[in-house]
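Forwarding the complex inputs:
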Amino acid sequence: MANTATRSFLQVAVTEEATPPLRVVQIEGLVILKIIKHCKEFSPALVTGQLLGLDVGSVLEVTNCFPFPIREEDEEVEAEGANYQLEMMRCLREVNVDNNTVGWYQSTMFGSFQTVELIETFMNYQENIRRCVCIIYDPSRANQGVLALKALKLSDTFMELYRTNNFKGEKLREKNLSFVDIFEEIPIKVSNSALISAFMTELEADIPVTQCDYDRLHLSTSPILERNVEFLIECMDDLSMEQQKFQFYYRNLSRQEAQKQAWLQKRRAENVARKNAGEEPLPEEDPTNPIFKPIPEPSRLDSFLVTNQIANYCNQINGVAGQSFSRLYLMKALHEK
Amino acid sequence: MGSSGQTVLQYVPSPASVSAKVHPLVIFNICDCYVRRPDQAERVIGTLLGSVLPDGTVDIRNSYAVPHNESSDQVALDIDYHQNMLTSHQKVNPKEAIVGWFSTGGVIGGSALIHEFYSREVNNPIHLTVDTEFRTGNASIKAFVSVGLSLGDQQLAAQFQEIPLDLRMVEAEQIGFDVLKPTIVDKLPNDLEGMEATMERLLALIDDVYKYVDDVVEGRIAPDNKIGRFLSDTVAALPKLSPNAFDKLVNDSLQDQLLLLYLSSITRTQLSLAEKLNTAAQIL
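Prediction (whole assembly, two chains):
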Protein backbone atom coordinates (compact mmCIF):
# COMPACT_ATOMS: atom_id res chain seq x y z
CA MET A 1 0.00 0.00 0.00
CA ALA A 2 1.58 3.23 -1.07
CA ASN A 3 2.03 5.71 1.70
CA THR A 4 1.07 9.14 0.46
CA ALA A 5 3.83 10.77 2.48
CA THR A 6 6.64 8.93 0.75
CA ARG A 7 7.04 9.06 -2.96
CA SER A 8 8.29 6.21 -5.00
CA PHE A 9 11.76 6.50 -6.42
CA LEU A 10 10.35 6.76 -9.87
CA GLN A 11 8.24 9.71 -8.95
CA VAL A 12 11.18 11.54 -7.48
CA ALA A 13 13.29 10.83 -10.49
CA VAL A 14 10.61 12.20 -12.76
CA THR A 15 10.01 15.39 -10.80
CA GLU A 16 13.72 16.18 -10.74
CA GLU A 17 13.51 17.06 -14.40
CA ALA A 18 11.68 20.32 -13.87
CA THR A 19 14.29 22.91 -13.02
CA PRO A 20 12.94 25.84 -11.06
CA PRO A 21 13.46 29.14 -12.84
CA LEU A 22 16.35 31.25 -11.71
CA ARG A 23 15.07 33.85 -9.31
CA VAL A 24 17.96 35.26 -7.41
CA VAL A 25 21.67 35.50 -7.80
CA GLN A 26 23.42 35.30 -4.48
CA ILE A 27 26.86 36.84 -4.55
CA GLU A 28 29.47 36.82 -1.86
CA GLY A 29 31.02 40.07 -0.77
CA LEU A 30 34.40 38.72 -1.78
CA VAL A 31 33.30 38.39 -5.39
CA ILE A 32 31.95 41.93 -5.48
CA LEU A 33 35.17 43.34 -4.11
CA LYS A 34 37.22 41.38 -6.60
CA ILE A 35 35.11 42.52 -9.52
CA ILE A 36 35.27 46.14 -8.41
CA LYS A 37 39.02 45.97 -7.98
CA HIS A 38 39.67 44.34 -11.33
CA CYS A 39 37.39 46.60 -13.34
CA LYS A 40 38.63 49.70 -11.66
CA GLU A 41 42.28 48.91 -12.13
CA PHE A 42 41.93 48.52 -15.83
CA SER A 43 39.35 51.15 -16.53
CA PRO A 44 38.77 52.52 -19.14
CA ALA A 45 39.73 49.29 -20.86
CA LEU A 46 37.04 46.66 -20.74
CA VAL A 47 37.89 43.49 -18.89
CA THR A 48 36.27 40.16 -18.26
CA GLY A 49 36.58 37.38 -15.80
CA GLN A 50 35.05 34.08 -14.82
CA LEU A 51 32.50 33.45 -12.09
CA LEU A 52 32.56 30.30 -9.99
CA GLY A 53 29.94 28.96 -7.69
CA LEU A 54 27.03 26.62 -7.20
CA ASP A 55 23.65 26.23 -8.74
CA VAL A 56 21.14 25.49 -5.99
CA GLY A 57 17.47 25.32 -6.83
CA SER A 58 16.23 28.74 -7.76
CA VAL A 59 19.28 30.51 -6.41
CA LEU A 60 22.54 30.78 -8.23
CA GLU A 61 25.33 31.20 -5.72
CA VAL A 62 28.47 32.89 -6.85
CA THR A 63 31.26 32.23 -4.41
CA ASN A 64 34.45 33.17 -6.17
CA CYS A 65 35.81 34.60 -9.35
CA PHE A 66 39.05 35.18 -11.17
CA PRO A 67 40.00 37.70 -13.79
CA PHE A 68 41.05 36.96 -17.35
CA PRO A 69 44.24 38.46 -18.65
CA ILE A 70 43.80 41.03 -21.37
CA ARG A 71 44.13 39.33 -24.69
CA GLU A 72 46.04 40.76 -27.53
CA GLU A 73 44.66 39.92 -30.95
CA ASP A 74 46.96 36.99 -31.46
CA GLU A 75 46.50 33.52 -32.78
CA GLU A 76 48.52 31.63 -30.22
CA VAL A 77 46.91 33.35 -27.31
CA GLU A 78 43.79 31.25 -27.70
CA ALA A 79 45.53 28.21 -26.30
CA GLU A 80 47.17 30.28 -23.61
CA GLY A 81 43.85 31.64 -22.50
CA ALA A 82 42.42 28.15 -22.16
CA ASN A 83 45.52 27.01 -20.29
CA TYR A 84 45.28 29.89 -17.91
CA GLN A 85 41.70 29.03 -17.16
CA LEU A 86 42.44 25.38 -16.52
CA GLU A 87 45.39 26.25 -14.34
CA MET A 88 43.40 28.67 -12.21
CA MET A 89 40.53 26.23 -11.80
CA ARG A 90 42.87 23.46 -10.79
CA CYS A 91 44.66 25.63 -8.25
CA LEU A 92 41.44 26.90 -6.79
CA ARG A 93 40.16 23.37 -6.49
CA GLU A 94 43.09 22.55 -4.28
CA VAL A 95 42.05 25.13 -1.76
CA ASN A 96 38.48 23.90 -1.73
CA VAL A 97 36.95 26.66 -3.76
CA ASP A 98 33.90 25.63 -5.78
CA ASN A 99 35.18 25.39 -9.28
CA ASN A 100 31.98 25.13 -11.23
CA THR A 101 31.73 27.86 -13.78
CA VAL A 102 28.46 29.66 -13.40
CA GLY A 103 29.04 32.53 -15.74
CA TRP A 104 31.30 35.45 -16.39
CA TYR A 105 31.54 39.12 -15.56
CA GLN A 106 32.54 42.06 -17.66
CA SER A 107 33.01 45.73 -17.18
CA THR A 108 31.30 48.29 -19.31
CA MET A 109 31.47 51.98 -19.98
CA PHE A 110 28.31 53.97 -19.33
CA GLY A 111 26.11 51.00 -19.94
CA SER A 112 26.99 50.24 -23.54
CA PHE A 113 27.24 46.50 -23.23
CA GLN A 114 24.54 45.16 -25.45
CA THR A 115 26.32 43.74 -28.41
CA VAL A 116 26.07 40.65 -30.51
CA GLU A 117 29.25 39.33 -28.88
CA LEU A 118 27.48 39.24 -25.56
CA ILE A 119 24.73 37.11 -26.99
CA GLU A 120 27.19 34.82 -28.68
CA THR A 121 29.15 34.34 -25.48
CA PHE A 122 25.92 33.56 -23.71
CA MET A 123 25.04 30.92 -26.25
CA ASN A 124 28.48 29.38 -25.94
CA TYR A 125 28.18 29.16 -22.21
CA GLN A 126 24.63 27.93 -22.34
CA GLU A 127 25.65 24.90 -24.32
CA ASN A 128 27.90 23.66 -21.57
CA ILE A 129 26.25 24.85 -18.42
CA ARG A 130 22.62 24.67 -17.67
CA ARG A 131 22.33 27.98 -15.96
CA CYS A 132 24.71 30.79 -16.37
CA VAL A 133 24.57 34.44 -15.64
CA CYS A 134 26.51 37.47 -16.74
CA ILE A 135 27.35 40.21 -14.30
CA ILE A 136 27.91 43.66 -15.67
CA TYR A 137 29.74 46.23 -13.62
CA ASP A 138 30.02 49.86 -14.57
CA PRO A 139 33.03 51.47 -12.89
CA SER A 140 32.28 54.92 -14.31
CA ARG A 141 29.15 55.19 -12.22
CA ALA A 142 31.10 54.63 -9.06
CA ASN A 143 32.03 58.29 -9.25
CA GLN A 144 28.41 59.14 -8.76
CA GLY A 145 28.18 57.01 -5.69
CA VAL A 146 26.23 54.15 -7.17
CA LEU A 147 27.17 50.49 -7.12
CA ALA A 148 26.25 49.66 -10.69
CA LEU A 149 26.13 45.89 -10.64
CA LYS A 150 23.63 43.96 -12.72
CA ALA A 151 23.04 40.28 -13.29
CA LEU A 152 21.73 39.37 -16.72
CA LYS A 153 20.50 36.28 -18.36
CA LEU A 154 19.09 35.66 -21.80
CA SER A 155 15.40 34.92 -21.74
CA ASP A 156 14.42 31.45 -22.83
CA THR A 157 12.19 32.48 -25.71
CA PHE A 158 14.96 34.58 -27.11
CA MET A 159 17.40 31.73 -26.86
CA GLU A 160 15.17 29.43 -28.84
CA LEU A 161 14.78 32.01 -31.54
CA TYR A 162 18.48 32.62 -31.70
CA ARG A 163 19.25 28.97 -32.07
CA THR A 164 17.06 28.70 -35.10
CA ASN A 165 18.46 32.04 -36.23
CA ASN A 166 15.04 33.07 -37.19
CA PHE A 167 14.21 36.68 -36.68
CA LYS A 168 11.43 37.28 -39.05
CA GLY A 169 8.56 39.46 -38.07
CA GLU A 170 6.09 36.58 -37.94
CA LYS A 171 8.02 34.56 -35.47
CA LEU A 172 8.51 37.51 -33.22
CA ARG A 173 4.84 38.33 -33.29
CA GLU A 174 4.03 34.76 -32.48
CA LYS A 175 6.14 34.68 -29.41
CA ASN A 176 5.12 38.16 -28.48
CA LEU A 177 8.72 39.13 -28.04
CA SER A 178 9.59 42.78 -27.76
CA PHE A 179 12.97 44.33 -27.33
CA VAL A 180 12.82 44.34 -23.58
CA ASP A 181 12.54 40.61 -23.54
CA ILE A 182 15.98 39.80 -24.77
CA PHE A 183 17.75 40.14 -21.47
CA GLU A 184 16.28 39.36 -18.14
CA GLU A 185 17.67 41.12 -15.15
CA ILE A 186 17.88 39.00 -12.07
CA PRO A 187 17.90 40.53 -8.59
CA ILE A 188 21.13 40.23 -6.69
CA LYS A 189 21.45 39.26 -3.08
CA VAL A 190 24.67 39.71 -1.20
CA SER A 191 25.75 37.27 1.41
CA ASN A 192 28.79 37.10 3.60
CA SER A 193 30.11 34.53 5.96
CA ALA A 194 29.68 35.41 9.61
CA LEU A 195 33.43 35.59 10.10
CA ILE A 196 33.81 38.33 7.55
CA SER A 197 30.93 40.33 8.99
CA ALA A 198 32.52 40.11 12.39
CA PHE A 199 35.81 41.37 11.01
CA MET A 200 34.27 44.18 9.07
CA THR A 201 32.22 45.49 11.94
CA GLU A 202 35.27 45.48 14.17
CA LEU A 203 37.66 47.04 11.80
CA GLU A 204 35.62 49.78 10.24
CA ALA A 205 34.31 52.23 12.75
CA ASP A 206 30.93 53.62 11.86
CA ILE A 207 32.05 56.82 10.29
CA PRO A 208 29.09 59.14 9.94
CA VAL A 209 29.96 60.30 6.48
CA THR A 210 31.96 58.49 3.86
CA GLN A 211 33.59 59.57 0.66
CA CYS A 212 30.77 58.19 -1.39
CA ASP A 213 28.39 60.55 0.34
CA TYR A 214 30.53 63.43 -0.82
CA ASP A 215 30.42 62.06 -4.32
CA ARG A 216 26.70 61.73 -4.24
CA LEU A 217 26.19 65.28 -3.09
CA HIS A 218 28.39 66.70 -5.76
CA LEU A 219 26.44 69.23 -7.77
CA SER A 220 27.98 68.98 -11.18
CA THR A 221 26.48 66.18 -13.19
CA SER A 222 26.88 67.68 -16.60
CA PRO A 223 29.84 65.61 -17.81
CA ILE A 224 28.03 62.38 -17.05
CA LEU A 225 24.81 63.53 -18.63
CA GLU A 226 26.72 64.79 -21.63
CA ARG A 227 28.38 61.44 -22.19
CA ASN A 228 25.07 59.68 -21.84
CA VAL A 229 23.35 61.92 -24.32
CA GLU A 230 26.26 61.56 -26.73
CA PHE A 231 25.93 57.81 -26.65
CA LEU A 232 22.21 58.14 -27.02
CA ILE A 233 22.63 60.19 -30.18
CA GLU A 234 25.01 57.66 -31.67
CA CYS A 235 22.57 54.90 -30.96
CA MET A 236 19.75 56.83 -32.53
CA ASP A 237 21.84 57.08 -35.65
CA ASP A 238 22.27 53.34 -35.65
CA LEU A 239 18.58 52.85 -35.08
CA SER A 240 17.63 55.07 -37.96
CA MET A 241 19.99 53.12 -40.18
CA GLU A 242 18.24 49.93 -39.19
CA GLN A 243 14.89 51.51 -39.86
CA GLN A 244 16.00 52.47 -43.30
CA LYS A 245 17.02 48.93 -43.99
CA PHE A 246 13.52 47.82 -43.19
CA GLN A 247 11.96 50.49 -45.30
CA PHE A 248 14.11 49.44 -48.19
CA TYR A 249 13.15 45.82 -47.70
CA TYR A 250 9.45 46.55 -47.61
CA ARG A 251 9.67 48.73 -50.63
CA ASN A 252 11.48 46.00 -52.52
CA LEU A 253 8.98 43.46 -51.37
CA SER A 254 6.02 45.45 -52.56
CA ARG A 255 7.73 46.14 -55.83
CA GLN A 256 8.35 42.46 -56.26
CA GLU A 257 4.70 41.73 -55.55
CA ALA A 258 3.60 44.20 -58.14
CA GLN A 259 5.93 42.64 -60.67
CA LYS A 260 4.65 39.20 -59.83
CA GLN A 261 1.08 40.29 -60.32
CA ALA A 262 1.86 41.85 -63.65
CA TRP A 263 3.66 38.74 -64.85
CA LEU A 264 0.83 36.54 -63.62
CA GLN A 265 -1.68 38.59 -65.55
CA LYS A 266 0.35 38.20 -68.66
CA ARG A 267 0.62 34.46 -68.15
CA ARG A 268 -3.09 34.13 -67.61
CA ALA A 269 -3.82 36.09 -70.73
CA GLU A 270 -1.41 33.86 -72.63
CA ASN A 271 -3.04 30.77 -71.21
CA VAL A 272 -6.45 31.93 -72.28
CA ALA A 273 -5.10 32.53 -75.75
CA ARG A 274 -3.51 29.10 -75.81
CA LYS A 275 -6.65 27.42 -74.56
CA ASN A 276 -8.52 29.04 -77.36
CA ALA A 277 -5.93 27.79 -79.74
CA GLY A 278 -6.13 24.34 -78.10
CA GLU A 279 -2.63 24.21 -76.68
CA GLU A 280 -1.39 23.23 -73.26
CA PRO A 281 -1.62 26.03 -70.74
CA LEU A 282 1.68 27.19 -69.40
CA PRO A 283 2.34 26.89 -65.70
CA GLU A 284 1.38 29.85 -63.62
CA GLU A 285 4.65 30.04 -61.87
CA ASP A 286 8.09 30.26 -63.25
CA PRO A 287 10.82 29.49 -60.77
CA THR A 288 13.57 30.60 -63.08
CA ASN A 289 12.26 34.12 -63.36
CA PRO A 290 14.24 36.34 -61.01
CA ILE A 291 11.21 38.21 -59.77
CA PHE A 292 10.07 35.13 -57.96
CA LYS A 293 13.16 34.89 -55.88
CA PRO A 294 12.21 35.60 -52.28
CA ILE A 295 14.05 38.56 -50.86
CA PRO A 296 15.69 37.74 -47.56
CA GLU A 297 14.23 39.65 -44.70
CA PRO A 298 16.83 41.53 -42.72
CA SER A 299 17.42 40.17 -39.27
CA ARG A 300 15.89 42.17 -36.52
CA LEU A 301 18.47 41.22 -34.02
CA ASP A 302 20.60 44.32 -34.48
CA SER A 303 17.71 46.68 -34.23
CA PHE A 304 16.61 44.94 -31.08
CA LEU A 305 19.98 45.32 -29.52
CA VAL A 306 20.22 48.95 -30.45
CA THR A 307 16.78 49.62 -29.06
CA ASN A 308 17.73 47.91 -25.87
CA GLN A 309 20.81 50.01 -25.62
CA ILE A 310 18.85 53.19 -26.07
CA ALA A 311 16.37 52.15 -23.44
CA ASN A 312 19.26 51.58 -21.10
CA TYR A 313 20.69 55.02 -21.68
CA CYS A 314 17.29 56.57 -21.12
CA ASN A 315 16.97 54.79 -17.84
CA GLN A 316 20.37 55.96 -16.76
CA ILE A 317 19.57 59.52 -17.66
CA ASN A 318 16.39 59.26 -15.65
CA GLY A 319 18.30 58.00 -12.66
CA VAL A 320 20.88 60.75 -12.78
CA ALA A 321 18.27 63.42 -13.34
CA GLY A 322 16.33 62.16 -10.35
CA GLN A 323 19.39 62.44 -8.19
CA SER A 324 20.08 65.95 -9.41
CA PHE A 325 16.60 67.05 -8.55
CA SER A 326 17.04 65.95 -4.98
CA ARG A 327 20.38 67.71 -4.81
CA LEU A 328 19.03 70.96 -6.22
CA TYR A 329 16.12 71.07 -3.85
CA LEU A 330 18.42 70.33 -0.98
CA MET A 331 20.64 73.22 -1.96
CA LYS A 332 17.67 75.50 -2.22
CA ALA A 333 16.50 74.60 1.24
CA LEU A 334 19.95 75.07 2.71
CA HIS A 335 20.33 78.45 1.14
CA GLU A 336 17.08 79.70 2.48
CA LYS A 337 18.17 78.78 5.97
CA MET B 1 92.97 45.01 28.30
CA GLY B 2 91.98 45.23 24.78
CA SER B 3 88.51 43.75 24.90
CA SER B 4 85.56 46.10 24.83
CA GLY B 5 83.81 46.56 28.14
CA GLN B 6 80.38 45.11 27.80
CA THR B 7 78.70 43.67 24.80
CA VAL B 8 75.15 44.82 24.71
CA LEU B 9 72.45 42.94 22.99
CA GLN B 10 71.22 45.49 20.55
CA TYR B 11 68.75 45.29 17.79
CA VAL B 12 68.98 47.20 14.63
CA PRO B 13 66.16 49.70 14.66
CA SER B 14 63.56 48.91 12.08
CA PRO B 15 64.11 50.51 8.71
CA ALA B 16 62.66 53.98 8.62
CA SER B 17 58.93 53.63 9.39
CA VAL B 18 57.84 50.76 7.24
CA SER B 19 54.12 50.60 7.40
CA ALA B 20 51.62 48.58 5.50
CA LYS B 21 48.30 49.30 3.89
CA VAL B 22 45.85 46.50 3.39
CA HIS B 23 42.93 46.46 1.04
CA PRO B 24 39.80 44.90 2.49
CA LEU B 25 39.76 42.43 -0.39
CA VAL B 26 42.75 40.74 1.19
CA ILE B 27 40.95 40.31 4.50
CA PHE B 28 37.90 38.94 2.75
CA ASN B 29 40.02 36.51 0.83
CA ILE B 30 41.84 35.31 3.93
CA CYS B 31 38.59 34.80 5.84
CA ASP B 32 37.11 32.95 2.90
CA CYS B 33 40.15 30.66 2.68
CA TYR B 34 39.97 30.04 6.40
CA VAL B 35 36.33 29.04 6.18
CA ARG B 36 37.13 26.68 3.34
CA ARG B 37 40.25 25.11 4.76
CA PRO B 38 40.52 21.32 4.76
CA ASP B 39 39.34 19.70 7.94
CA GLN B 40 42.60 18.67 9.44
CA ALA B 41 44.35 21.98 9.00
CA GLU B 42 44.20 24.40 11.87
CA ARG B 43 45.31 27.43 10.03
CA VAL B 44 45.73 28.82 6.54
CA ILE B 45 48.93 30.10 5.03
CA GLY B 46 49.29 32.04 1.83
CA THR B 47 51.08 34.66 -0.19
CA LEU B 48 50.46 38.39 -0.22
CA LEU B 49 50.72 40.34 -3.44
CA GLY B 50 51.05 44.04 -3.90
CA SER B 51 53.57 46.74 -4.47
CA VAL B 52 55.84 49.05 -2.59
CA LEU B 53 54.82 52.69 -2.83
CA PRO B 54 57.45 55.33 -3.39
CA ASP B 55 57.27 56.54 0.18
CA GLY B 56 58.17 53.16 1.55
CA THR B 57 54.78 51.85 2.61
CA VAL B 58 53.85 48.47 1.37
CA ASP B 59 50.51 48.31 -0.41
CA ILE B 60 48.97 44.87 -0.04
CA ARG B 61 46.39 44.39 -2.75
CA ASN B 62 45.76 40.73 -3.34
CA SER B 63 46.38 37.35 -1.81
CA TYR B 64 45.95 33.65 -2.39
CA ALA B 65 46.14 30.67 -0.11
CA VAL B 66 48.79 28.00 -0.51
CA PRO B 67 48.15 24.45 0.68
CA HIS B 68 50.53 23.30 3.34
CA ASN B 69 51.24 20.36 5.57
CA GLU B 70 51.65 20.91 9.22
CA SER B 71 52.87 18.53 11.85
CA SER B 72 53.88 19.23 15.42
CA ASP B 73 57.29 20.60 14.58
CA GLN B 74 57.36 21.20 10.86
CA VAL B 75 55.52 23.19 8.33
CA ALA B 76 55.84 22.42 4.65
CA LEU B 77 54.44 24.62 1.87
CA ASP B 78 53.50 23.51 -1.58
CA ILE B 79 56.00 25.56 -3.50
CA ASP B 80 54.90 24.49 -6.97
CA TYR B 81 51.39 25.64 -6.28
CA HIS B 82 52.75 28.93 -5.05
CA GLN B 83 54.74 29.45 -8.23
CA ASN B 84 51.83 28.47 -10.45
CA MET B 85 49.43 30.84 -8.81
CA LEU B 86 52.01 33.57 -8.93
CA THR B 87 52.51 33.24 -12.68
CA SER B 88 48.75 33.07 -13.23
CA HIS B 89 48.12 36.19 -11.22
CA GLN B 90 50.91 38.02 -12.94
CA LYS B 91 49.41 37.30 -16.31
CA VAL B 92 46.46 39.39 -15.33
CA ASN B 93 48.26 42.03 -13.39
CA PRO B 94 51.99 42.17 -13.99
CA LYS B 95 52.44 44.95 -11.49
CA GLU B 96 51.57 42.82 -8.51
CA ALA B 97 54.57 41.21 -6.89
CA ILE B 98 55.10 39.19 -3.74
CA VAL B 99 55.32 41.42 -0.71
CA GLY B 100 54.97 38.87 2.05
CA TRP B 101 52.79 36.13 3.43
CA PHE B 102 49.87 35.70 5.77
CA SER B 103 48.71 33.14 8.26
CA THR B 104 45.66 32.88 10.43
CA GLY B 105 46.28 32.31 14.08
CA GLY B 106 49.25 33.82 15.87
CA VAL B 107 52.95 33.80 15.23
CA ILE B 108 54.40 30.39 16.05
CA GLY B 109 57.75 28.70 15.86
CA GLY B 110 57.30 27.44 12.37
CA SER B 111 56.68 30.96 11.15
CA ALA B 112 60.35 31.77 11.13
CA LEU B 113 61.10 29.10 8.55
CA ILE B 114 58.32 30.24 6.28
CA HIS B 115 59.44 33.79 6.71
CA GLU B 116 62.91 32.81 5.63
CA PHE B 117 61.51 31.15 2.54
CA TYR B 118 59.68 34.30 1.63
CA SER B 119 62.69 36.47 2.30
CA ARG B 120 64.41 34.58 -0.45
CA GLU B 121 61.70 35.75 -2.81
CA VAL B 122 61.46 39.35 -1.79
CA ASN B 123 63.43 41.77 0.26
CA ASN B 124 62.01 42.25 3.74
CA PRO B 125 58.70 40.45 3.46
CA ILE B 126 55.73 41.40 5.59
CA HIS B 127 54.08 38.77 7.71
CA LEU B 128 50.40 39.36 8.27
CA THR B 129 48.54 37.53 10.99
CA VAL B 130 44.81 37.51 11.03
CA ASP B 131 43.30 36.34 14.26
CA THR B 132 40.32 34.40 13.08
CA GLU B 133 39.68 32.73 16.37
CA PHE B 134 39.23 35.99 18.18
CA ARG B 135 41.53 34.93 20.91
CA THR B 136 41.86 38.37 22.35
CA GLY B 137 38.15 38.98 22.14
CA ASN B 138 38.26 41.28 19.20
CA ALA B 139 39.36 40.99 15.64
CA SER B 140 43.01 41.74 15.31
CA ILE B 141 45.08 41.96 12.22
CA LYS B 142 48.77 42.52 12.75
CA ALA B 143 51.67 42.96 10.44
CA PHE B 144 55.23 42.10 11.26
CA VAL B 145 58.60 42.47 9.71
CA SER B 146 61.63 40.52 10.65
CA VAL B 147 64.22 42.48 12.49
CA GLY B 148 67.66 41.19 13.16
CA LEU B 149 69.00 40.88 16.68
CA SER B 150 72.71 41.20 16.83
CA LEU B 151 75.28 40.82 19.50
CA GLY B 152 78.16 43.03 18.61
CA ASP B 153 78.88 41.96 15.09
CA GLN B 154 77.18 38.62 15.08
CA GLN B 155 73.65 38.00 13.93
CA LEU B 156 71.98 36.09 16.70
CA ALA B 157 68.38 35.78 15.83
CA ALA B 158 65.57 37.52 14.10
CA GLN B 159 62.59 38.94 15.85
CA PHE B 160 59.18 39.70 14.55
CA GLN B 161 58.45 43.30 15.13
CA GLU B 162 55.07 44.81 14.64
CA ILE B 163 54.59 47.62 12.15
CA PRO B 164 51.65 49.97 11.81
CA LEU B 165 48.89 48.72 9.61
CA ASP B 166 46.32 50.73 7.79
CA LEU B 167 43.09 49.35 6.45
CA ARG B 168 42.45 51.28 3.31
CA MET B 169 39.43 51.33 1.12
CA VAL B 170 38.99 52.78 -2.32
CA GLU B 171 35.87 54.84 -2.98
CA ALA B 172 34.19 52.33 -5.19
CA GLU B 173 34.55 49.76 -2.48
CA GLN B 174 33.21 52.13 0.10
CA ILE B 175 29.98 52.43 -1.76
CA GLY B 176 29.55 48.74 -1.53
CA PHE B 177 30.61 48.72 2.06
CA ASP B 178 27.17 49.14 3.54
CA VAL B 179 26.20 46.24 1.43
CA LEU B 180 29.13 44.15 2.54
CA LYS B 181 28.81 44.50 6.27
CA PRO B 182 25.74 42.51 7.21
CA THR B 183 25.54 38.80 6.66
CA ILE B 184 22.88 38.96 4.07
CA VAL B 185 21.43 41.79 2.07
CA ASP B 186 18.31 41.34 0.10
CA LYS B 187 18.90 43.70 -2.70
CA LEU B 188 21.41 46.18 -3.87
CA PRO B 189 20.36 49.77 -3.27
CA ASN B 190 19.66 51.70 -6.42
CA ASP B 191 20.42 55.34 -7.12
CA LEU B 192 17.59 57.02 -5.28
CA GLU B 193 17.85 54.91 -2.19
CA GLY B 194 21.53 55.64 -1.92
CA MET B 195 20.72 59.32 -2.26
CA GLU B 196 18.19 59.04 0.54
CA ALA B 197 20.68 57.37 2.83
CA THR B 198 23.24 60.05 2.11
CA MET B 199 20.83 62.85 2.83
CA GLU B 200 19.77 61.26 6.07
CA ARG B 201 23.36 61.10 7.12
CA LEU B 202 23.90 64.73 6.20
CA LEU B 203 20.84 65.69 8.21
CA ALA B 204 22.14 63.77 11.20
CA LEU B 205 25.42 65.62 10.95
CA ILE B 206 23.71 68.98 10.78
CA ASP B 207 21.62 68.08 13.81
CA ASP B 208 24.77 67.19 15.71
CA VAL B 209 26.33 70.50 14.85
CA TYR B 210 23.20 72.37 15.94
CA LYS B 211 23.17 70.59 19.24
CA TYR B 212 26.80 71.37 19.78
CA VAL B 213 26.35 75.04 19.05
CA ASP B 214 23.32 75.23 21.30
CA ASP B 215 25.21 73.58 24.10
CA VAL B 216 28.10 75.96 23.78
CA VAL B 217 25.85 79.00 23.72
CA GLU B 218 24.06 77.87 26.85
CA GLY B 219 27.34 77.21 28.52
CA ARG B 220 26.91 73.46 28.89
CA ILE B 221 30.06 72.58 27.05
CA ALA B 222 33.30 74.48 27.11
CA PRO B 223 33.75 76.14 23.75
CA ASP B 224 36.55 74.86 21.61
CA ASN B 225 38.03 77.61 19.49
CA LYS B 226 39.22 75.33 16.76
CA ILE B 227 35.79 73.86 16.22
CA GLY B 228 34.24 77.28 16.30
CA ARG B 229 36.61 78.56 13.67
CA PHE B 230 35.97 75.52 11.52
CA LEU B 231 32.23 76.04 11.76
CA SER B 232 32.43 79.67 10.82
CA ASP B 233 34.63 78.76 7.85
CA THR B 234 32.10 76.22 6.70
CA VAL B 235 29.20 78.60 6.95
CA ALA B 236 31.17 81.29 5.17
CA ALA B 237 31.89 78.87 2.35
CA LEU B 238 28.34 79.24 1.12
CA PRO B 239 28.72 81.58 -1.81
CA LYS B 240 27.19 84.98 -1.33
CA LEU B 241 24.62 85.28 -4.05
CA SER B 242 21.68 87.56 -4.16
CA PRO B 243 18.46 85.58 -3.87
CA ASN B 244 17.55 86.41 -7.45
CA ALA B 245 20.79 85.16 -8.88
CA PHE B 246 20.57 82.03 -6.78
CA ASP B 247 17.02 81.32 -7.80
CA LYS B 248 17.93 81.80 -11.41
CA LEU B 249 20.80 79.32 -11.08
CA VAL B 250 18.68 76.70 -9.45
CA ASN B 251 15.83 77.13 -11.88
CA ASP B 252 18.16 76.89 -14.85
CA SER B 253 19.59 73.62 -13.63
CA LEU B 254 16.13 72.31 -12.88
CA GLN B 255 15.00 73.16 -16.35
CA ASP B 256 17.97 71.41 -17.88
CA GLN B 257 17.24 68.27 -15.94
CA LEU B 258 13.57 68.40 -16.86
CA LEU B 259 14.52 68.80 -20.48
CA LEU B 260 16.63 65.70 -20.35
CA LEU B 261 13.92 63.73 -18.64
CA TYR B 262 11.47 64.79 -21.30
CA LEU B 263 13.92 63.83 -24.00
CA SER B 264 14.41 60.39 -22.59
CA SER B 265 10.67 59.82 -22.25
CA ILE B 266 10.14 60.85 -25.84
CA THR B 267 12.90 58.54 -26.94
CA ARG B 268 11.29 55.69 -25.13
CA THR B 269 7.92 56.35 -26.72
CA GLN B 270 9.59 56.52 -30.09
CA LEU B 271 11.25 53.20 -29.42
CA SER B 272 8.06 51.38 -28.60
CA LEU B 273 6.45 52.91 -31.67
CA ALA B 274 9.28 51.80 -33.91
CA GLU B 275 9.09 48.40 -32.35
CA LYS B 276 5.41 48.03 -33.17
CA LEU B 277 5.94 49.20 -36.69
CA ASN B 278 8.75 46.80 -37.29
CA THR B 279 7.09 43.69 -36.09
CA ALA B 280 3.49 44.47 -36.90
CA ALA B 281 3.91 45.41 -40.52
CA GLN B 282 2.86 42.78 -42.95
CA ILE B 283 2.74 42.80 -46.69
CA LEU B 284 -0.40 41.12 -47.81
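Strands of chain A lie at 24-28, 48-56, 59-67, 101-107, 133-137, 149-154, 183-186, 188-191.
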